[in-house]
Amino acid sequence: MSKFEISNGKKIVKPFNKIWIVLGVVIVLIIIFWQFITYNTAMFNLGELSVIFKQLFTPKNTILEQRTWSDYFEFMWELREPLWITIQMSLGGTIIGSILAVPVAIFASRNIFKNKYINAPFRFLMNIIRTIPLMLLVIIGVAMVGTGVLSGIIGYTVFSFGIMAKMFYEVIETADMSPFEALESTGANRLQAFSYAIVPQVFISFVSFLFYIFELNIRASAILGFVGINGIGEAISVNNLYNYDRVGATVIVLFVFILILQLINSHIRGKLE
Amino acid sequence: MIKFVDVKKTYLNGVQALKGVNLEINDGEFVAIIGLSGAGKSTLLRLINKMIDITSGQLYIDDIEISSIKGKDLRMLRRSIGMIFQSFNLVKKMSVFNNVLSGRVAYHSTYKTILGLFPKNEKILALESLDAMGILDKAFIRADQLSGGQQQRVALARALTQEPKVILADEPVASLDPITTVQVMDDFLKINKEFGITIIANMHHVDLALKYATRIIGIKDGLVVYDGPASKINDDKLVEIYGRSLKHDEILGDPDVEV
To answer: Which chain B residues are Cβ-neighbours of A181 within 8 angstroms?
Structure first.
């Protein structure tokens, strides 16, 4: 709190800014949790790190197996088939999940449906779904239809739905409602007003979210081999014990592919804006 | 014809915006509603197209009592009434043409409008409306590229494309500069004279209201305190409406002199 007095003698008090309370709580929490973390400098073994990096990113070279760089790159080239399977699963899940998310996001938006008894069940649905980890969703998919592309698509669909519904309804809620009011005043129904007043405002974000979720799904595919899903994750799960070089090659392929995706996303976004 | 019979409006928070209004507005009139902020001008306007519902009394439009209508009938009512807003209420990221065409959506089924299937004659109508407002050359650029005055003309073109019998204007020039203000008011006059559309406008600037409107309705504390031709209004009447003499900002002045 601080008081100001201006030249004519009038006084005004600046109210206390609540951000200081928040900051104080955060600092206290950091100090408390610092006490629980046990560490000593010997735990930071940079030497071990360099060994692992060498195992990952150079061809395997042991007494039993000697591989060359050409083997390393050949393996990368062989990854195109599992990568294609991963793309199919991720893209299918992203598109189906995102389309299913659209109506749910609309019903969850307080500015479109002003009745909180309409919003609440849809918000509850999306919150519940978002609490389930992708790994578990895929296991459920495997239980339903067995291992294969379809179980991956099921897992990715539910996962994508949860993220898209949440992000899309937040964008809808921040849209400028004045054209919506104008459209309603012309006699348009709610759906017409939404498609003419809100959709043009949120379309670019929707496309951008599609790319982001696709990217998340591709990234998550790295660990899905462990639950028996085909695709690029399989190359990691079958090699993770002895063939670190193959794991490293897979990581590089994934890294490059995600980088390309991000470039395409920012390019398209720039074009649409 | 629009007829208010003892219309009252009390908001949920207890504010009595209108305390019993009786009015008759005939087809083809140019009516300006004046009064202090909070006097109930906006409420009065929005009751006509049911953007706000009345609390008690009757409101007739062409002899149909509208306080109980809803659903399709309500949308049909709104279709015949255009509305102009202080902040234009355009979709800024959409082209001027699509903004204007959106005035037609209430004439079609939902699925047709979502797919953007408008008949050719309506697209022509949208372009003709833009031409009538003098901004045909701006049809295919984004609305946010236009100046404030041009955006309000797009909004007017949207209302014209709707082919309404009445246009309600809520402070249509309050966010425009004096020169643009006169241009937009001239457009209102043109719509009133050439298209025969009734104009009911809330006006902040009293001199503008007197210059353009044929009839003035003065509102004070939710009641009509003046209702008559613009020519018969005088300083005493204005003091009655405003409860004081006019402030500088309630008079636009003569923009031709100011420049």
So the answer is: 51, 85, 89
Is there a domain that residue A198 lies in? Answer: yes
Question: Does residue A170 register a pLDDT over 70?
Answer: yes
Can you give the pTM of this predicted structure?
A: 0.82
Q: Please state the ipTM of this predicted complex.
A: 0.89
CATH number at residue A162: 1.10.3720.10
Round to whole Å and give the CA distance between B140 and B121: 18
**A223: contact with B, CB 8 A cutoff:** no
Mean pLDDT to the nearest integer, B166-174: 95
3-state secondary structure (DSSP) of residue B31: strand
Instruction: Find the domain containing A85 and state its range.
Output: 69-272
Find the residue in B nearest to A190 (Cα): B110
> Which pLDDT value is given to residue B258?
41
- B/e letters for A128-164, b = 16+ CB within 10 Å, e = fewer, are ebeeeebbebbbebbeeeeeebebbbbbbbbbbbbbb
Q: What does the DSSP 8-state code read for residue B105?
A: G
> A184 CB near a chain B CB, below 8 Å?
yes
B22 touches B224 (CB < 8 A)? yes
**Chain B closest-CA separation from residue A267 CA (Å):** 19
pLDDT tens for A191-231 read 999 999 999 999 999 999 999 999 999 999 888 888 878 88
- The tally of domains found in chain A comes to 1
pLDDT per position as a tens digit, B217-259: 999 999 999 999 988 888 888 888 888 777 777 777 765 544 3
